[in-house]
Amino acid sequence: MRPVQLWVPDTRRPDFTREASRQARLIRACDEKQGDDLAFSELAAAQIEGWE
Known about the structure:
Blueprint lengths: L15 H31 L6
């Protein structure tokens, strides 16, 4: 085994909530724009024999 170091945001920072909200809005906007792409990919994957 070897040690692993994980870096996570400091939720105690005063601007954490504002920054998390900003990033969530960006993700939501991206998801809304790419929703059709995801649906197409899922449909195509479902048609592959043996796909799970």
